[in-house]
Amino acid sequence: MSSEKLKEYLLQIADNVQESTKLDDIYDQLALLADIEESEEQEKRGEVLTHAEVVSKSKEWLK
Q1: In the chain, where are the structural domains located?
Q2: Alpha-carbon Rg of the chain, whole angstroms?
Q3: What distance in Å separates the CA atoms of residue 51 and residue 54, rounded to the nearest whole number?
Q4: For a tag on the chain, would you pick the N or C end, based on fewer CB atoms within 10 A?
């Protein structure tokens, strides 16, 4: 994640911080945004599975 993107995410999170917000909540939100960004990059690179592939692989994983 670029430092510019990190700054953008932190500002977005900071706008929603309330008195009840815990530091762990902020970490969780930042991790989620980073995961979403990574997933979008994987999609752009074509690193995706079809629904049928997921169903097939999940059967192997759940044995």
Answers
A1: 3-61
A2: 17
A3: 5
A4: C
